[in-house]
UniProtKB/TrEMBL annotation:
Gene name in the database record: ribA
Pathway listed: Cofactor biosynthesis; riboflavin biosynthesis; 5-amino-6-(D-ribitylamino)uracil from GTP: step 1/4
Name the record gives this protein: GTP cyclohydrolase-2
Stated family: Belongs to the GTP cyclohydrolase II family.
Matching InterPro entries: GTP_cyclohydro_II (IPR032677), RibA (IPR000926), RibA-like_sf (IPR036144)
Keywords: GTP-binding, Hydrolase, Metal-binding, Nucleotide-binding, Riboflavin biosynthesis, Zinc
PANTHER family: 3,4-DIHYDROXY-2-BUTANONE 4-PHOSPHATE SYNTHASE (PTHR21327:SF18), GTP CYCLOHYDROLASE II-RELATED (PTHR21327)
Pfam families: GTP_cyclohydro2
Organism: Loktanella gaetbuli
Amino acid sequence: MSLAPDNTERLARARADLRMGVPVVVAGAGVMLAAETLDAARLNALRDLGAAVALTDWRAKTLKVAAYDGDVARIALPSDTSVAWVRALADPSGDLRHPMKGPLRGLREGSPLLARVAVALCKSARLLPAAVIAPLDDATSFARVHGLTVVDADAALTTAEAALRSITSARLPISVSEAGRLHVFRPDDGAEEHYAVEIGNPDRNAPVLARLHSACFTGDLLDSLKCDCGPQLRAALAQMGAEGAGVLLYLNQEGRGIGLANKMRAYALQDQGFDTVEANHRLGFHDDERDFRIGAAILKQMGFGAVRLLTNNPAKIARMEDSGVRVAERVALKVGENAHNHAYLATKAAKSGHLL
């Protein structure tokens, strides 16, 4: 029996390494460092290998540099590269104070594979989607010499959903229903756990009243006025309690899947005058980076094949249907609008298709 880690386990190691500023090697391609966590010594070492900066096409558009590779851009490093220069490319917080970051030279030659893997790994580690990359002729030997984690490119870029395991469940009386139960699910890829709050004893043979709720620390816990998440959470649970049955999935996909730190960066950009979608794009993310297949997988494991879905987001309906969970009815959930989030909700309706 081999004790060596498989591809999934290596990717989990790689995410942890990147968050600590440790380089990761991509088999057959090269080495990468997350722009957010790099230090001067490691930056200089990669620069000597002929490094470049990898960014998403969204961030490249903000920086006015061509993304010749389509979804990613590779930018040449100048000889006097500093950590501050690289981070300024990755982090838009200083764009308005220091708008001129060039001249920037986009690279056309060579394969974009390493750049794509680097951006994908940074996203999965909940870091800014930018990295310093350096191609290598013998990446595996380089990793062996330096003791670095090696990941498979195809595994890093795959969009397959991680297997979820039911870990435990227990009775949990809550204010809206004494007949509550909390289920904990853990993905095999080392990512965050997800939870299901079951109210009553829902009939598995009928569409269950369900809510896919993405974790929102600021809204759910602090009752932030910048979003409608907290009111939606409480209203969904209250409706399930009133009906005597339902299931609320609490998915750890903070900030539409970009993580709390990046969500706070987006909030700071909103304070500069950008709307929620524009802020995500300036950071280098898509409008929404969540994976709703996780919710469908949990529902199916719990025995539910059809739902009455509490949502204003048509994308959730489409993803449920695509994943084999029938949406028998969309139940509107329009709560929580106030003077602080009116523009945010209007943007979600106009740009993200929410039914508000």
